Amino acid sequence: MELTYRPRRLRRTPALRSMVRENSLSASDFIYPLFIHEGDEIEQISAMPGANRWPLDALVGEVTRAWNLGVKCVVLFPKVDDALKTEGGEECFNENGLIPRAIRRLKKELPQMTIMTDVALDPYSIDGHDGIVSTEGIVLNDETIEHLCKQAIVQADAGADLIGPSDMMDGRVGAIRESLDDEGFEDVGIISYTAKYSSAYYGPFREALDSAPRSLSEKPIPKDKSTYQMDPANAREAITEAQLDEQEGSDILMVKPGLAYLDIIYRLRQESELPIAAYNVSGEYSMVKAAAAKGWIDEKSVVLETLLSFKRAGSDLILTYHACDAAAWLKNE
Ligand code: PBG
What we know:
This protein is of the alpha/beta class. It has a single domain (24-331), classed as Aldolase class I (TIM Barrel). Helix content is 38%, strand content 16%. The radius of gyration is 20 Å and the shape is globular. The mean pLDDT is 97. Ligand PBG binds at residues 118, 120, 122, 130, 166-167, 202, 205-206, 225, 281-282.
């Protein structure tokens, strides 16, 4: 055949392939999510093999392990005792709560590690919602934001580097930015969950924190989060959310979940010059782990291919429970 173009020419040897490779993964792309609890034991999470609920003592060791593998940022999620949960989730701004204590401890023992936090009420809410639920069963926007701002300040005061509002209330990024600035935390950044979808992929995470919406009283509790998280059918709306977060002062935009929403990552990459993060969420992790445990897929290859797809779609950062495994695989490549 007389072919002018033979794309296979550049695929012929490993050296040629590496020369024309468009994207790559590095441990510094990863943000490692960790669950913490008050107990003394390391508790396994059944739907997320390899992920645990860490007591603070063991947390320091796990975060040090991540740092030594080249991971530069962790994000902390608390499993809060039921006795501390209230309708308003006030425990979220207790300066002696689990999260502020964990941040202080990590900043003391490993000050070079970047600490990201989650801002939302769900781990602290008796109703399991990211905001305050009214007696009529409405998730209240503006009232919730007052609590979120207090939560962000307590986290910043404890030493957090990046505040991650995951609640999807309207106007929370601007309100949190203003509160942080008013309190002298102008250098603390915001990584906003910009396009966060009302997704079934969060199931294992809600098991890990025991934070799913639930009804314990007469109050009607919305069964899902679809009045504040985005409709999975919508893409253009993600651009509106991104524009708002950018105007309100977000430093990094996040898309969540990641894998079923690669098109959203790509669209935001075209729209914004800010760094973009993808959240490779709990359900995505569990599916890979389950198939790998059955011997149906090769875990290492599937994980690295998936993580690379987030980079190709346009994200700079990837929140992933595979962070340490992937960092170790990249090191040995
Ligand atoms: C809560 C929050 C959720 C996740 C991160 N922060 C769950 C939810 O919105 O219900 C999900 C993360 C994951 O599934 O890995 N605000």
